[in-house]
Amino acid sequence: MAEMILIIIGVLIIGIVARIGLKFWQYGRPQHLTHAPAASCADDSAVTLFIPGYAGNRFSFGGMLQRFVSSGIANKSLVVMIDRHNQPHVTGHLDPYRPMVQLIFATPRVAVRQQAEGVLAVVQYLIAHEHVQTMNLVAHSMGGVVLFQYLTTAAKLVNLPEVRKVVTIGAPFNDSEVGQNTYPIENHPLTENGPTKTTPVYNYFLRTLQRLPNTISYLNIAGNIGDTVQSDGAVALNSALSLRFLLRPAINQYQEFVVHGKNARHSRLHENYEVDRQIVQFLYPDAQKNVAGEK
C-alpha cells in the first residue's frame, strides 16, 4: 500500500514538473495567429511591447500573451532577451497584424534607469531591423516606472517610434522603493491636489512628464484585495492611482480601472481576466471581449 502511494505521488510530481516545463517553453517563444487578417487601421499595425516588473521573467506576461493569441486577438511576434549589457537577443519575426513583443531581462533585479536603457535598446533594434513607426507599451509593477523613465528619455531624442497607447498595471508611482516589496505597504492618501506626501520617484516624474507629447492615451490598472491599506498586497491603491496627478496635462487621455477581490493581488494582476479585457478593449477597441480560458 505504501509503495502504491509513493508511485502515485511520484506520478503527480512528474506531471506537475512536466506541466511547468511545458509552460516555461511556451511562454518564452513566439506564437502566431493561424489566420491573421490584414492590418486595417493604426490600432492593428502598432507594435506593443510588454515590460515585466522587478524580478520578472517569461511567466510575467507569458500567460497573458498566450491567451491573447489563443483568442485570435493578436500575434506574439517577438521574444526579446535583454542581456546584462542591455543588448537585445531577438527570437521570432514581426507580424503585420497586431504584433506583440515580450521583453525579458536576463538580470531582472537592476535599477529602473538600466532597464529603461534596455527598453530603448530594443526600440532602436525595432527601428533598424523592422522599421517600426508606431508602438504601444504595457507594463506591470516596477515595469510601469521603467516605462515612464523610457518615455521621459525618448522625449529628448529624435526619430523614435510614436507611442500611441500606454498601459500600467499595479505600478508604484508614489513608493520610496519601486522594486522589492516592503512592509508595511507605503500608503499616502490622495487629496484633490495630489498625495499628502510625495516620494522621490513621484517628484521626478512630476518634473519630467511634462515633456511627453499630448497624443498618448493612458490606461492605469490597479488592484484592491480589500485589506486595511486598500492595496493589491504590495502596492497601495493610492500609490498606483497617483499617476492621475502626474498626467494632469493629459487628463483627457487618461483612464483608470480598479480590480477588486482575491484575484486583484499584485502578482496575479497579469493573470486576471478583467485585466485582460480592459487591455484588449483599450488597445484594440473593435476586438472581441472574451479571452481564451475565461470562465
Supply the helix-strand structural class.
alpha/beta
Architecture (CATH level 2) name of the largest domain: 3-Layer(aba) Sandwich
User: What is the string of SSEs from the N terminus onward?
Assistant: HHEHEEEHEHEEEHEHHEH
**Percent helix among the residues?**
25-40%
* Coarse shape: globular
Could you describe the 3D structure shown?
With 295 residues, this protein is an alpha/beta fold. The chain folds into two domains: 1-30; 43-283, 3-Layer(aba) Sandwich (Rossmann fold), CATH 3.40.50.1820. Helix content is 35%, strand content 20%. It is built from nine helices and ten strands. The chain has helices spanning 2-27, 42-45, 58-70, 112-130, 142-154, 200-208, 237-241, 243-246, 273-283, and strands spanning 47-51, 75-82, 88-92, 99-105, 134-140, 162-169, 190-191, 194-195, 217-224, 254-260. An eight-stranded mixed beta sheet has the order 3-2-4-1-5-6-9-10, sandwiched between helices. Strands 7-8 form a two-stranded antiparallel ribbon. A hairpin with a 5-residue loop joins strand 2 (75-82) and strand 3. The longest helix has 26 residues, at 2-27. It is globular. The two termini are 38 Å apart. The model has no long low-confidence stretch (mean pLDDT 91).
